[in-house]
Design goal:
The chain has helices spanning 4-27, 37-72, 74-90. By secondary structure, the chain is mostly helical.
């Protein structure tokens, strides 16, 4: 379970990132001329995919860490050995 503070922090990070993405896509980088509306749609699409890609990377890394911890668990190791012993006995 995530703490309430962590959920609030994630909400504000996503909100600020979304507003920043819209700002960059619509107005361009500060000091430059903004793109046409068609370019805006293309930019917002590309910039909007960045958080999804980052989220996917974070998910995969967390999942691999969880699996690594699980495989080091002595109970899992014992079950793994017993499953291998059963397979060998059936042959």
């Amino acid at each position: 379970m995530q703490s309430r503070a962590l959920r609030i922090a994630q909400f504000w990070i996503v909100l600020i990132w979304t507003l920043f993405t819209v700002y960059l896509a619509y107005l361009g980088w500060p000091g430059t001329y903004g793109p046409e509306f068609g370019d805006f749609l293309i930019h917002i699409g590309f910039l909007g995919l960045c958080p999804l890609a980052l989220g996917a990377v974070v998910y995969v890394v967390r999942r691999n860490i969880q699996l690594a911890r699980l495989m080091r668990d002595p109970q899992v190791q014992a079950e793994k050995i017993s499953v291998e012993a059963i397979r060998k006995a059936r042959r």
